[in-house]
Amino acid sequence: MSLSDDLKRELARVAPTSDCDRLAELSGLFHSAGRLHLRGRGDVTLHLDVSESAVARRAFSLLREAGVDAELRTYRRQAFDRATRYQLHVEGDNALRVLRDAGVVGPRKGPLERPPRRVVGRSCCRHAYLRGALLGGGSVSGPRSPHLEIRTTGLAGAEFLADVARRAGLELKVVDRGRHAVAYAKGAQAITDVLSAAGASDAVLVFEESAVVGATRSRANRLANADHANLVRTARAAHRQAQAVRRLEADGRLKSLPPRLLEAADLRLRHPTLSLRDLAGKCRPPVTKAAFHQRLTRLVRLSGI
Length: 305
Prior knowledge:
The protein is α+β, with helices and mostly antiparallel strands. It contains eleven helices and eight strands.
């Protein structure tokens, strides 16, 4: 099951708390997934075409609460996966009145590409409109390569969505793809802000959990890389120090060195893999790691390596 399907199922469970929210959500639904058909003599019928049964039930419930009768039909998509689609057909004067109030159709029964600003005048209405638009035409992918988009029939509708988001403190960008336009968001933070405003708390948790796991994995990789680099540097330094001791011995200069340097040279040759701290502890008497490092540095300098 895709993340988009999970998102729509979750949003379909968020119940509007006021009549204005119901109208705003209906407006978002019909502007993203609605179609208007002229039947002659001034009669029109509208249908809502969605891919999820949960969205169809939600739209049916919203229409019924508004006093609008709707007929639910199903069909199989001819292309791609032949998935089942759901259509809600509404008609009649009462339906047109409600959809006029929701800014879906105008006074002359023509479709409105964007609703009047009164439909999203309140903060709760803006959130409800975004929720309806996501239910009707939203898709989201991630969380590794997060991308959210809401499809609209035209550029004006996408720009209206971006304006609604901006007024809600969110960020949506707009792109015209010719036959349709989309309002979209990229990046986990921008997407979770939109999902949170729409009421999709479970989807937000998916992205936040992925962000935490990703940050933990990145930190672990950094630490592992740092440890590896430290081991490489330590091994190279130990090899150079052992070479210096052997050079001094080959040149006949080793035995003429002070006792402390002789001890350091002997410990390095006998324990090539031990750390400086462990070697310093084997000195008699034990010395600090810094003091032992100074002795080895002096041996390297004397050898000329």
